[in-house]
Amino acid sequence: MPAQRRAEVGRPRTVAVTAALGWLGWRLLGPEPMPRYATPQSRPLHLPGRTVFVGDVELFVREAGPAAAEPLVLLHGWNLDGEHTYHGVIPGLSERFRIVMPDLRDHGRSEWRRTPVDLADLADDVAGLLDALGLVGATVVGYSLGGMVAQVLAVRHPRLVGRLVLAATSAYPVDRLRPAAWAVMRVARTVARISRRELTMATVQILRGGRALRPEHERWMWEGLMRRDPALSAEVGFAAWRFDGRASLPAIAVPTLVIVPSRDQVIPPRAQRALVDLLANATMIEIPGARHEAILAEPETFVDAITKFVTG
Questions:
Q1: Residue 7 falls within a domain, yes or no?
Q2: What pTM does this model have?
Q3: What is the CATH number of the domain that holds 76?
Q4: Residue 131 falls within a domain, yes or no?
Q5: Each residue's pLDDT tens digit, 190-226
Protein backbone atom coordinates (compact mmCIF):
# COMPACT_ATOMS: atom_id res chain seq x y z
CA MET A 1 0.00 0.00 0.00
CA PRO A 2 1.48 3.42 -0.94
CA ALA A 3 2.53 5.66 1.95
CA GLN A 4 -0.10 8.30 1.10
CA ARG A 5 -2.85 5.68 1.12
CA ARG A 6 -1.67 4.32 4.47
CA ALA A 7 -1.75 7.82 5.89
CA GLU A 8 -5.33 8.37 4.66
CA VAL A 9 -6.46 5.09 6.22
CA GLY A 10 -4.63 5.67 9.47
CA ARG A 11 -5.85 9.23 10.07
CA PRO A 12 -9.46 8.28 11.06
CA ARG A 13 -8.11 5.58 13.34
CA THR A 14 -5.84 8.08 15.05
CA VAL A 15 -8.72 10.49 15.54
CA ALA A 16 -10.93 7.73 16.95
CA VAL A 17 -8.25 6.50 19.36
CA THR A 18 -7.49 10.06 20.49
CA ALA A 19 -11.19 10.75 21.09
CA ALA A 20 -11.63 7.50 23.03
CA LEU A 21 -8.61 8.20 25.22
CA GLY A 22 -9.79 11.76 25.79
CA TRP A 23 -13.23 10.56 26.86
CA LEU A 24 -11.68 7.93 29.13
CA GLY A 25 -9.42 10.46 30.81
CA TRP A 26 -12.28 12.93 31.23
CA ARG A 27 -14.56 10.34 32.84
CA LEU A 28 -11.86 8.93 35.12
CA LEU A 29 -10.25 12.21 36.19
CA GLY A 30 -12.78 14.94 35.49
CA PRO A 31 -15.74 16.16 37.56
CA GLU A 32 -19.14 14.48 37.45
CA PRO A 33 -21.35 16.64 35.17
CA MET A 34 -24.76 17.32 36.65
CA PRO A 35 -27.81 17.42 34.38
CA ARG A 36 -29.80 20.61 34.05
CA TYR A 37 -33.57 20.70 33.79
CA ALA A 38 -35.73 23.24 31.99
CA THR A 39 -38.72 22.83 34.32
CA PRO A 40 -39.23 22.26 38.07
CA GLN A 41 -38.80 18.58 38.89
CA SER A 42 -41.09 16.19 40.80
CA ARG A 43 -41.90 12.51 41.22
CA PRO A 44 -44.87 11.08 39.31
CA LEU A 45 -45.91 8.93 42.30
CA HIS A 46 -45.50 8.96 46.05
CA LEU A 47 -46.10 5.27 46.59
CA PRO A 48 -44.24 3.77 49.57
CA GLY A 49 -42.98 0.21 49.60
CA ARG A 50 -41.66 -2.48 51.88
CA THR A 51 -39.34 -5.46 51.71
CA VAL A 52 -40.34 -9.11 51.79
CA PHE A 53 -37.87 -11.94 52.32
CA VAL A 54 -38.04 -14.88 49.94
CA GLY A 55 -35.61 -17.27 51.56
CA ASP A 56 -32.47 -15.16 51.86
CA VAL A 57 -33.41 -12.82 49.01
CA GLU A 58 -34.87 -9.47 50.03
CA LEU A 59 -37.38 -8.13 47.50
CA PHE A 60 -38.77 -4.60 47.50
CA VAL A 61 -42.47 -4.35 46.66
CA ARG A 62 -44.91 -1.45 46.28
CA GLU A 63 -48.65 -1.98 46.68
CA ALA A 64 -51.65 0.13 45.79
CA GLY A 65 -55.41 -0.16 45.50
CA PRO A 66 -58.02 -1.85 47.72
CA ALA A 67 -56.57 -4.75 49.71
CA ALA A 68 -59.65 -6.89 49.02
CA ALA A 69 -59.70 -6.23 45.28
CA GLU A 70 -58.54 -8.65 42.60
CA PRO A 71 -54.73 -8.68 42.54
CA LEU A 72 -52.58 -7.59 39.62
CA VAL A 73 -48.89 -8.48 39.82
CA LEU A 74 -46.80 -6.14 37.67
CA LEU A 75 -43.35 -7.33 36.53
CA HIS A 76 -41.15 -4.64 35.07
CA GLY A 77 -38.70 -4.35 32.19
CA TRP A 78 -34.94 -4.73 32.06
CA ASN A 79 -32.83 -1.95 33.58
CA LEU A 80 -35.91 -0.25 35.01
CA ASP A 81 -37.78 -0.99 38.23
CA GLY A 82 -41.47 -1.41 38.94
CA GLU A 83 -42.15 2.26 39.54
CA HIS A 84 -40.29 3.39 36.43
CA THR A 85 -42.10 0.92 34.18
CA TYR A 86 -45.63 1.20 35.55
CA HIS A 87 -45.98 4.66 37.10
CA GLY A 88 -48.30 5.80 34.32
CA VAL A 89 -50.79 2.94 34.72
CA ILE A 90 -50.89 2.77 38.53
CA PRO A 91 -53.49 5.55 39.05
CA GLY A 92 -55.94 3.95 36.60
CA LEU A 93 -55.42 0.31 37.57
CA SER A 94 -55.42 0.89 41.33
CA GLU A 95 -58.98 2.21 41.20
CA ARG A 96 -60.33 -1.34 40.92
CA PHE A 97 -57.39 -3.73 41.43
CA ARG A 98 -54.94 -4.54 44.18
CA ILE A 99 -51.56 -3.71 42.69
CA VAL A 100 -48.50 -5.73 43.71
CA MET A 101 -45.38 -4.31 42.03
CA PRO A 102 -42.04 -5.86 42.99
CA ASP A 103 -38.58 -4.86 41.88
CA LEU A 104 -36.97 -7.97 40.44
CA ARG A 105 -33.68 -9.19 41.85
CA ASP A 106 -30.71 -7.04 40.73
CA HIS A 107 -33.08 -4.18 39.92
CA GLY A 108 -34.34 -1.12 41.75
CA ARG A 109 -34.40 -1.42 45.52
CA SER A 110 -34.44 -5.22 45.70
CA GLU A 111 -31.37 -7.20 46.65
CA TRP A 112 -28.37 -7.15 44.34
CA ARG A 113 -26.36 -10.36 44.22
CA ARG A 114 -23.04 -10.85 42.46
CA THR A 115 -23.84 -14.39 41.43
CA PRO A 116 -24.90 -15.95 38.11
CA VAL A 117 -28.60 -15.47 37.45
CA ASP A 118 -31.17 -16.93 35.08
CA LEU A 119 -34.78 -16.01 34.45
CA ALA A 120 -35.87 -19.05 36.46
CA ASP A 121 -34.26 -17.43 39.52
CA LEU A 122 -36.29 -14.27 39.01
CA ALA A 123 -39.48 -16.28 38.48
CA ASP A 124 -38.86 -18.30 41.64
CA ASP A 125 -38.34 -15.05 43.56
CA VAL A 126 -41.73 -13.81 42.37
CA ALA A 127 -43.33 -17.15 43.29
CA GLY A 128 -41.93 -16.88 46.80
CA LEU A 129 -43.23 -13.33 47.08
CA LEU A 130 -46.74 -14.37 46.01
CA ASP A 131 -46.70 -17.23 48.51
CA ALA A 132 -45.60 -14.84 51.24
CA LEU A 133 -48.46 -12.47 50.36
CA GLY A 134 -50.98 -15.31 50.12
CA LEU A 135 -51.77 -14.66 46.46
CA VAL A 136 -52.88 -17.64 44.36
CA GLY A 137 -54.35 -17.40 40.87
CA ALA A 138 -53.40 -13.76 40.38
CA THR A 139 -53.28 -11.93 37.08
CA VAL A 140 -49.61 -11.44 36.23
CA VAL A 141 -48.67 -8.60 33.91
CA GLY A 142 -45.18 -8.77 32.42
CA TYR A 143 -43.57 -6.07 30.33
CA SER A 144 -40.49 -6.81 28.20
CA LEU A 145 -38.13 -8.71 30.55
CA GLY A 146 -41.04 -8.99 32.98
CA GLY A 147 -43.04 -10.79 30.31
CA MET A 148 -40.33 -13.42 29.99
CA VAL A 149 -40.24 -13.85 33.76
CA ALA A 150 -44.04 -14.13 33.76
CA GLN A 151 -43.87 -16.96 31.21
CA VAL A 152 -41.36 -18.87 33.33
CA LEU A 153 -43.48 -18.24 36.43
CA ALA A 154 -46.59 -19.66 34.73
CA VAL A 155 -44.68 -22.80 33.67
CA ARG A 156 -42.84 -23.43 36.95
CA HIS A 157 -45.59 -22.29 39.36
CA PRO A 158 -48.93 -22.64 37.52
CA ARG A 159 -51.09 -22.55 40.66
CA LEU A 160 -50.04 -18.94 41.29
CA VAL A 161 -51.10 -17.59 37.89
CA GLY A 162 -54.75 -17.17 36.94
CA ARG A 163 -54.25 -14.94 33.88
CA LEU A 164 -51.31 -13.53 31.96
CA VAL A 165 -50.77 -10.21 30.21
CA LEU A 166 -47.61 -10.30 28.10
CA ALA A 167 -46.66 -6.92 26.64
CA ALA A 168 -43.72 -5.94 24.43
CA THR A 169 -42.16 -9.34 25.06
CA SER A 170 -41.45 -12.69 23.43
CA ALA A 171 -40.65 -16.32 24.09
CA TYR A 172 -37.47 -15.87 22.03
CA PRO A 173 -36.60 -12.17 22.13
CA VAL A 174 -33.33 -12.27 20.17
CA ASP A 175 -34.42 -14.36 17.20
CA ARG A 176 -31.92 -12.93 14.69
CA LEU A 177 -28.43 -11.39 14.68
CA ARG A 178 -27.70 -13.01 18.01
CA PRO A 179 -23.89 -12.54 17.89
CA ALA A 180 -24.37 -8.84 17.11
CA ALA A 181 -26.76 -8.40 20.05
CA TRP A 182 -24.31 -10.18 22.33
CA ALA A 183 -21.48 -7.90 21.17
CA VAL A 184 -23.53 -4.74 21.66
CA MET A 185 -24.38 -5.77 25.22
CA ARG A 186 -20.71 -6.44 25.94
CA VAL A 187 -19.71 -3.01 24.66
CA ALA A 188 -22.51 -1.32 26.62
CA ARG A 189 -21.38 -3.07 29.80
CA THR A 190 -17.81 -1.92 29.25
CA VAL A 191 -18.86 1.69 28.70
CA ALA A 192 -21.16 1.63 31.74
CA ARG A 193 -18.39 0.26 33.95
CA ILE A 194 -16.38 3.40 33.19
CA SER A 195 -19.28 5.85 33.15
CA ARG A 196 -23.02 5.31 33.58
CA ARG A 197 -23.78 8.80 32.35
CA GLU A 198 -23.68 8.12 28.60
CA LEU A 199 -26.13 5.21 28.58
CA THR A 200 -28.39 7.02 31.04
CA MET A 201 -28.37 10.11 28.84
CA ALA A 202 -29.19 7.99 25.78
CA THR A 203 -32.08 6.30 27.57
CA VAL A 204 -33.54 9.60 28.77
CA GLN A 205 -33.24 11.06 25.27
CA ILE A 206 -35.02 8.05 23.75
CA LEU A 207 -37.84 8.30 26.28
CA ARG A 208 -38.12 12.03 25.81
CA GLY A 209 -38.15 11.71 22.02
CA GLY A 210 -40.86 9.07 22.18
CA ARG A 211 -43.03 11.23 24.46
CA ALA A 212 -42.62 8.59 27.14
CA LEU A 213 -41.11 10.89 29.78
CA ARG A 214 -42.61 14.14 30.95
CA PRO A 215 -40.14 17.02 31.38
CA GLU A 216 -40.89 17.39 35.10
CA HIS A 217 -40.00 13.73 35.74
CA GLU A 218 -36.58 13.69 34.10
CA ARG A 219 -34.59 13.99 37.32
CA TRP A 220 -36.54 11.10 38.89
CA MET A 221 -35.84 8.91 35.87
CA TRP A 222 -32.21 10.03 35.64
CA GLU A 223 -31.43 9.25 39.27
CA GLY A 224 -33.09 5.85 39.04
CA LEU A 225 -31.14 4.89 35.93
CA MET A 226 -27.87 6.09 37.45
CA ARG A 227 -28.36 3.66 40.35
CA ARG A 228 -28.03 0.66 38.04
CA ASP A 229 -25.09 -1.66 38.52
CA PRO A 230 -23.51 -2.32 35.09
CA ALA A 231 -22.31 -5.85 35.92
CA LEU A 232 -25.64 -6.99 37.39
CA SER A 233 -27.66 -5.37 34.61
CA ALA A 234 -25.53 -7.19 32.07
CA GLU A 235 -25.98 -10.53 33.86
CA VAL A 236 -29.77 -10.19 33.63
CA GLY A 237 -29.51 -8.96 30.05
CA PHE A 238 -27.51 -12.02 29.04
CA ALA A 239 -30.09 -14.21 30.81
CA ALA A 240 -32.74 -12.65 28.58
CA TRP A 241 -30.47 -13.15 25.56
CA ARG A 242 -30.27 -16.87 26.40
CA PHE A 243 -34.01 -17.22 27.03
CA ASP A 244 -35.97 -19.50 24.73
CA GLY A 245 -39.36 -20.47 26.14
CA ARG A 246 -40.95 -21.67 22.92
CA ALA A 247 -40.94 -25.34 23.86
CA SER A 248 -42.64 -24.76 27.21
CA LEU A 249 -45.31 -22.23 26.21
CA PRO A 250 -47.90 -24.81 25.08
CA ALA A 251 -48.08 -25.95 28.72
CA ILE A 252 -49.56 -22.57 29.70
CA ALA A 253 -53.34 -22.92 29.55
CA VAL A 254 -54.48 -19.79 31.41
CA PRO A 255 -56.17 -16.96 29.49
CA THR A 256 -53.45 -14.72 28.09
CA LEU A 257 -53.52 -11.27 26.53
CA VAL A 258 -50.61 -10.41 24.24
CA ILE A 259 -50.04 -6.67 23.68
CA VAL A 260 -47.78 -5.82 20.73
CA PRO A 261 -46.36 -2.34 20.04
CA SER A 262 -46.32 -2.41 16.25
CA ARG A 263 -43.05 -0.45 15.87
CA ASP A 264 -41.14 -1.97 18.77
CA GLN A 265 -37.46 -1.24 18.18
CA VAL A 266 -36.16 -3.59 20.92
CA ILE A 267 -38.12 -6.85 20.60
CA PRO A 268 -39.27 -7.48 17.02
CA PRO A 269 -43.07 -7.40 16.67
CA ARG A 270 -42.90 -10.65 14.65
CA ALA A 271 -41.40 -12.39 17.70
CA GLN A 272 -44.12 -10.93 19.91
CA ARG A 273 -46.93 -12.03 17.60
CA ALA A 274 -45.51 -15.56 17.62
CA LEU A 275 -46.65 -15.87 21.25
CA VAL A 276 -50.26 -16.19 20.13
CA ASP A 277 -49.52 -19.28 18.05
CA LEU A 278 -47.56 -20.91 20.87
CA LEU A 279 -50.07 -20.33 23.67
CA ALA A 280 -53.18 -22.45 24.09
CA ASN A 281 -55.55 -19.66 25.13
CA ALA A 282 -54.25 -16.33 23.87
CA THR A 283 -55.68 -13.22 22.27
CA MET A 284 -53.72 -10.31 20.88
CA ILE A 285 -54.11 -6.59 20.49
CA GLU A 286 -51.67 -4.44 18.58
CA ILE A 287 -50.94 -0.78 19.31
CA PRO A 288 -50.38 0.89 15.93
CA GLY A 289 -47.24 3.00 15.72
CA ALA A 290 -46.18 2.26 19.29
CA ARG A 291 -42.56 1.63 20.26
CA HIS A 292 -41.01 -0.43 23.03
CA GLU A 293 -41.62 2.32 25.60
CA ALA A 294 -45.35 2.27 24.81
CA ILE A 295 -46.41 1.66 28.40
CA LEU A 296 -44.86 4.99 29.36
CA ALA A 297 -46.09 6.84 26.29
CA GLU A 298 -49.65 5.45 26.16
CA PRO A 299 -50.59 4.34 29.71
CA GLU A 300 -54.32 4.83 29.12
CA THR A 301 -54.23 2.23 26.33
CA PHE A 302 -52.76 -0.33 28.71
CA VAL A 303 -55.15 0.51 31.54
CA ASP A 304 -58.11 0.03 29.22
CA ALA A 305 -56.79 -3.22 27.68
CA ILE A 306 -55.83 -4.82 30.99
CA THR A 307 -59.08 -3.80 32.69
CA LYS A 308 -61.23 -5.19 29.89
CA PHE A 309 -59.24 -8.42 29.79
CA VAL A 310 -59.40 -9.08 33.53
CA THR A 311 -63.02 -8.07 34.05
CA GLY A 312 -64.39 -9.15 30.69
A1: no
A2: 0.91
A3: 3.40.50.1820
A4: yes
A5: 888 888 888 899 999 999 988 999 999 999 999 999 9
